[in-house]
């Protein structure tokens, strides 16, 4: 469903993502892991067509993100790092606007709106202005806008950040529910979240893919945490060296 | 087309749910009313003086078009130079800052539709704003006898000038995520268009007419006098089209930069 091939993204001299490749099968939930600044957000922005790739290709549902950007955008729901809310709109007005620009036929919008509000637990704040909502609610409105038009592909950049434990459980359950009918890429650095929700894991570090496997294979012998720390450490010999030096000076 | 309407709806709504629209409208009408009042009292004073000192002869030369409407149009046009960049500054800059730009650009909306929607919304808002000053000509018509044709031409000029400024203001907003930068560069650009004809008299035979043609004021002043010619209309149409085209390129550039 999503194929990323030899994707490189440069901002001037800074290489954010370097020659990464991975794939997600239809109906699969992919956990996209990596330390802060490893290129997760950049990769997601390229997949959703917000940023162009410097080189390499991305195909979503068979459409090239550069040549058929419009077709790709029709099929994607995207929750960016910061929920893209208009602070002066009510939750209902905002979601209705999103449904319309996502190209939903007018007759289906009322139902889709009800469904999104219920699924994301927003019925009590439906008429509140988004600018006055707490962080957790804003995050949920962000999630609601990503799923309202029932897209085939969902790209979620840290969807559970800022939520309380109860909400995290609900949102995870919601994402799990989407599996099978939707293809989901979910970035996070909360490892248990991946263990609970995802089938497949891609770990990137410093702009490179350091691990791509099915979760079940990865966790056969080690916990996900150990795997994560091991592959991150491998990629950064420089860090180890530094640590060694620090320890020497300390000793 | 549906996307254009959706964008227009969202933009107009955001003007009117925030205090922006009301502050701008009130300010514009306050200043407009002040100009109108003063021009009218000056006119009335002149009328009294002329009838007293030189008999009926001189008073005949006074007319509402030249002494009230024309200066009013020119005064309002200066206010528009300042106000319009403030109306358009948020259009793109705020979306970029708040992250909603990501939503718009990852939605199946064509760049042209986005640019057109935002333009038409600001355009409608500014036309409403100028339309509200329509009460002054109505007052003049009720109590005097100005020439309607000249008045209509003047208003058309004012609306075209405002529309061009809207297009330019949106262009500068699309360059940045900082609203102050958008407003200041918009103000500089519209003001330059306004005064670019100043050195025309001494600039020689080639540059002079060119500068004069580039100046908004030149075409606007003709229309205020009641002269609508195709040169002026073509000028405004090309200015608007050019600014919209560049805005489209500027928004689109994110996709291939």
Task: Describe what you observe in this structure.
The complex is a heterodimer of chains A (251) and B (257). Chain A folds into two domains: 173 residues, 3-Layer(aba) Sandwich (Rossmann fold), CATH 3.40.50; 65 residues, no CATH class. Chain A has 251 residues and is α/β, with parallel strands linked by helices. The relative contact order of chain A is 0.16. Chain B has one domain. Chain B contains 13 helices and no strands. Classes of the chains: A alpha/beta (251), B mainly alpha (257). At the A-B interface, helix 2 and helix 3 of A face helix 1, helix 6 and helix 13 of B.
Q: What's a quick, concise take on this entry?
A:
The complex is a heterodimer of chains A (251) and B (257). Chain A is α/β, with parallel strands linked by helices.
Topology (SSEs and partners):
The complex is a heterodimer of chains A (251) and B (257).
Chain A: E1 2-11, E2 14-24, E3 29-33, H1 40-47, E4 55-60, E5 63-64, H2 69-74, E6 76-79, H3 91-101, H4 106-119, H5 135-147, E7 153-157, H6 165-178, E8 183-188, H7 191-197, E9 200-205, E10 208-214, H8 215-218, H9 224-235, H10 237-250
Parallel strand pairs in A: 3-8, 3-9, 6-7, 7-8
Antiparallel strand pairs in A: 1-2, 1-4, 4-5, 9-10
Helix pairs in contact in A: 3-4
Chain B: H1 2-17, H2 20-54, H3 56-59, H4 64-88, H5 90-98, H6 100-105, H7 111-132, H8 135-143, H9 148-174, H10 179-195, H11 204-214, H12 216-224, H13 230-256
Defining key terms:
heterodimer, A: 251 residues, alpha/beta, Rossmann fold, six-stranded mixed β-sheet, four-stranded antiparallel β-sheet, 10 helices, 10 strands, 41% helix, globular, disordered C terminus, B: 257 residues, mainly alpha, 13 helices, 84% helix
């Amino acid at each position: 469903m999503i194929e990323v091939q030899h994707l490189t993204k440069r901002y001037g001299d800074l290489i954010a993502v370097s020659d990464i490749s991975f794939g997600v099968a239809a109906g699969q939930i992919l956990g996209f892991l990596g330390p802060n600044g490893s290129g997760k957000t950049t990769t997601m922005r390229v997949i959703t067509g917000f940023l162009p790739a410097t080189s390499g290709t991305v195909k979503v549902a068979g459409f090239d993100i550069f040549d058929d950007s419009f077709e790709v955008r029709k099929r994607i729901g995207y929750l960016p790092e910061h929920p893209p809310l208009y602070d002066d709109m009510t939750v209902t007005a905002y979601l209705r606007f999103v449904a319309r620009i996502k190209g939903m036929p007018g007759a289906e919008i009322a139902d889709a709106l009800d469904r999104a509000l219920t699924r994301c637990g927003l019925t009590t704040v439906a008429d509140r202005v988004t600018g006055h909502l707490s962080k957790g609610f804003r995050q949920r409105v962000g999630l609601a806008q990503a799923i309202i038009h029932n897209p085939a592909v969902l790209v979620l950049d840290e969807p559970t950040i800022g939520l309380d434990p109860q909400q995290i459980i609900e949102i995870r359950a919601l994402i799990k529910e989407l599996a099978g009918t939707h293809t989901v890429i979910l970035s996070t650095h909360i490892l248990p979240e991946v263990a609970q929700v995802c089938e497949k894991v891609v770990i990137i570090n410093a702009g490179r893919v350091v691990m791509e496997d099915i979760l079940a294979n990865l966790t056969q012998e080690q916990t996900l945490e150990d795997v994560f720390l091991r592959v991150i450490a491998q990629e950064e010999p420089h860090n180890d060296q530094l640590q060694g030096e620090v320890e020497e000076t300390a000793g | 087309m549906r996307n254009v309407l959706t964008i227009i709806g969202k933009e107009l709504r955001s003007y009117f749910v925030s205090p922006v629209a009301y502050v701008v409208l009130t300010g514009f009408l306050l200043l407009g009313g002040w100009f109108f009042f003063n021009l009218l009292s000056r006119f009335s004073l002149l009328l009294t003086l002329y009838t007293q000192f030189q008999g009926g002869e001189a008073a005949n030369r006074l007319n509402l078009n030249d002494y009230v409407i024309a200066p009013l149009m020119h005064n309002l046009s200066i206010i528009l130079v300042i106000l319009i960049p403030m109306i358009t500054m948020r259009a793109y800059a705020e979306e970029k800052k708040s992250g909603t730009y990501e939503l718009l650009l990852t939605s199946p909306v064509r760049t042209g539709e986005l640019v057109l929607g935002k333009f038409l919304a600001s355009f409608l808002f500014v036309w409403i704003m100028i339309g509200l000053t329509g009460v002054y000509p109505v007052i003049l018509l009720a109590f005097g006898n100005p020439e309607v044709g000249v008045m209509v031409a003047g208003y058309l000029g004012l609306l075209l000038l405002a529309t061009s400024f809207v297009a330019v203001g949106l262009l500068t907003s699309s360059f940045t995520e900082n609203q102050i930068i958008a407003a200041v560069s918009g103000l500089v650009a519209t003001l330059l268009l306004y005064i670019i004809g100043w050195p025309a008299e001494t600039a020689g035979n080639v540059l002079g007419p060119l500068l004069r043609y580039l100046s908004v004021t030149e075409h606007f002043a003709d229309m205020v006098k009641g002269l609508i010619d195709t040169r002026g209309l073509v000028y405004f149409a090309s200015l608007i089209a050019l600014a919209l085209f560049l805005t489209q390129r500027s928004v689109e550039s994110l996709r291939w930069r």
